[in-house]
Each structure stands twice: as structure tokens, then as C-alpha cells.
Amino acid sequence: MKLVYLGTPEFAVPPLEALIRAGHRIAAVYTQPDRPKGRGQAMAASPVKESALAHGLDVRQPERIRRSEVVEELRALAPDAMAIVGYGQIIPQSIIDIPRLGIINVHASLLPAYRGAAPIQWAIANGETRTGVTTMRIDAGLDTGDMLLRWETAIGPEETSPELGSRLAAAGASLLVETLRGLDAGEITPEPQDDSRATLAPILKKEDGRVDWTWPAARIHARCRGFEPWPGTFAELRGQPIHIWRCRPVERQGGEAPGTIVTDRKRLLVSTGDGAIELLEVQLQGKKRISGEAFRNGQRLLDNERLA
Q1: CA-to-CA distance for 234 and 198, rounded, in angstroms?
Q2: How many other CB atoms are found less than 10 A from the CB of residue 186?
Q3: Could you tell me the mean pLDDT of each successive run of 10 residues in the chain, 308 residues long?
Q4: Omega prior to 157 cis, within 30 of 0
Q5: Is this prediction's pTM over 0.90?
Q6: 32-35, long-range: CB < 8 A, 24+ apart
Q7: DSSP element (H, E) containing 234
Q8: 36, 50, 127, 173, 237 from 11: Cα distances, Å
Q9: Alpha-carbon Rg of the chain, whole angstroms?
């Protein structure tokens, strides 16, 4: 099958490579333009661009895919289908109408749950125990198109966003190949989404990572796992930001106000609205990541000192 692929992040690499292994002809790969990255702000290619170039594919990086000249070049490519995974731009109807089999999206949730830019992060952060991948034929809405195939999995109790993302990317790659085969053979009946059951997974903001210590310990733990590596989970100690890299909920009824630091043998605990959180790995701004025990020993913590 002749395809055009649109994708940008690491999550979009396994689906692209699965299409190549399946023998599809990738006429072109569209990805976001190179962006400054890191402390030196050197221009960096997207993971999809790096993979596509390694396979000798034609890579295109328009600033705006909706521009008329880009629409015309896509029309000239005349793909049977287009596949889109985390591309990063809204696709106009003029492009949606080009391929005979439509534009197939791999979305990392069980639609209509968690429509939007960050489904993996919000599913974990909200304490979900199951999630999955859905392939759908996109329309002009935000992840509102007809569903094609689904794959479901449990979320591990300690699983982080990068870990779950890696599993869902691999599953989504296989599901995309099967979806294209089934569509071409006429074996898949598209299923409209039930909009009344839809939930949103909006793009993450830095402030989403701030801890509210009145929350239950389980909620703080879930957000710590879900928001790794960005925006992370953070609070303040003595006016300085402290990043919480790893933690776990602890059953404890000590009566301290939420946010109170409790030293319990070798553990570093913080009282929450329900129970307590053990800080396993933390990092003060400008310092190295260290264990909670090392932090406890290195900081002269005062009785009833609190994290804000």
C-alpha cells in the first residue's frame, strides 16, 4: 500500500518502522521542523525524522501543513492512506479528503476516554488501572473520528508515563498494521464514538506538577508517575523548589498537618490529606538527584517542618 506518514515524537517511531517492516511503500514522511533543544539550544531533529532518514525515506518538514502548496504536494503523492501519530498540527479537511482509505490515527487511550495531547500522562495521573490504544479514522474534531480497532492493557501500580508509553507504542504499531490490512480488505466496520462518555487529556502545563499536600497519598503517587519526566512533581522546601522523582504511598495516621515532614527511622515521609508519602528520590534545584534517606541525612530538617 502507498502511504504518507505524519509523526514527530518517540512514540511515533515504532509505528513507522512497523509499516516499513510490513512492506508498505512510504511515499513521504512529514514531521515537525527541527527545533532548538538542550542548554546549548542546538537545532535537533525529531525522533521520527531520525528514523525516516535512517531508512532512506523522503522527509518533509513544513511549518504549516495546511498551506495550499503542501496540500497540493500531498494530493500529487496520491496515497492510498495516511497514518498520523503525534504529528503536532491540526489536519484540515482538504487533506483529510485526499486518501481513499482516510487518515488513520494511533491514539494512546481507549477512546472516547482521554481525547487530547497527553492521554498517557493523564490516565496514570488520574489513577486509572487500565488503558490501551485505539486506531481511528480522523475527522475535523479533536480525536472524535470513528474508531477502528482497540487494544487494552493494565497499568502497572508503579508504571510511569515513559514505561507505559513504550508499551503502548509497540502495541499501537502492530494495531496500525492490522488496521490498514483490515481496511484494505473491507473487514473493519468503523464505530462512531459515544461523545457523552468522552474525557479530555489536555496538553500539560508546568503548574500541573505542583503537589497539593491535602490530596490523598495515592493521588500524589499517581501524579508523580504520570508526570514523569515533565512537568514532573514538585513542591517547595524553605522557599526552594524540590523535585520529587520517586515516591510511594504509606498508610499512616499521625495527625500532622498536610505537608509536614516526618522522619521515621530511615524513611522520609510527608503527611498528606489521607495517609503519607514516602519520598524515595528527590532533587533540590541545582543539585543532584538523591535518595530520600540521603536527603534526610544531609538536610537538617526541623521538627514539624513543612513542604509547601
Answers
A1: 29
A2: 7
A3: 98 98 98 88 94 98 97 98 96 97 98 97 98 97 97 98 98 98 97 98 97 97 97 95 97 89 86 96 95 89 87
A4: no
A5: yes
A6: 32/8, 32/61, 32/87, 32/88, 32/89, 33/61, 33/62, 33/63, 34/61
A7: strand 234-237
A8: 20, 13, 22, 10, 35
A9: 23
